[in-house]
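Chapter review: from sequence to fold.
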Amino acid sequence: MTRILPTALVMGVIVGLLVAAYMNIFNVPVMEWAIALEGCDIDRAGCAEQLAGAEDEAPLPLSFLTSLGGQRIGMSVGFAVIGILYAAIFTGLYHLMRNATPGWNPWAWAAVAGLLGFWGVSLYTQVKFPLNPPGIGDEGTLLARQGFQFLFIAVSTISVALVIYGVGFINRSATGSGRWVRYAGIGLAYAVVALLLAFAIPSVRDAAPDWLPPELTIMFRTFTAAGHFLLWMGIAFATVGYRMYRERDVHAYPQSSAAAA
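The token string follows.
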């Protein structure tokens, strides 16, 4: 399982496009719902009546065949790019896992690396900086929010990588009951760093407007988090599965592979 980065990058694009299709089906209608509410020039009750009267033609937020064509294309391109970035991070975490736990199999390395990547890069960041539907938020705070989010992701990812490296160091240097004590120490150290990170980096949040239903925000955040989980795990298992399939062919037909080379 050497040099998986090229495979991971290709899988990042493919899985990113598949996750974009999922997001187009489930999350774009929620975004349309938010945009429709934002565009109302009447109060929330009157807007709800207006949208309810239009449900016969295009029910919101369940109709996924309506408008926002440009948004759908942009989401597909965006998730393909995110897939490439996540694939690069996954490759690093995977190699750290492989060195830290040499007795495990590739599927276990992929599963843990994918879960840790999802936590450190996606989920913990969304807990710290809750996502809002498009159009929600002050444009004046956009640069600050993005800057703090990038800093948070960078530190969180490095912290997860250091945990894996620390586990590997313990596996190589400690034995017996002392190993578990050191594992606990690493877990405690990471918990302290994670809490410090959560409180040290400012959380620039814009208050939700009065017309925004709570269920809309919950749906948007849930679908987004699920999409990122599918992206991480899809990259992990698709990359490792393809590499194992290719290596099986090489071992099954060594003479043909040598001749082809």
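Two observations follow directly from the output. Residues 54-66, 256-261 have pLDDT under 50 and may be disordered. Residues 214-252 form the longest helix (39 residues).
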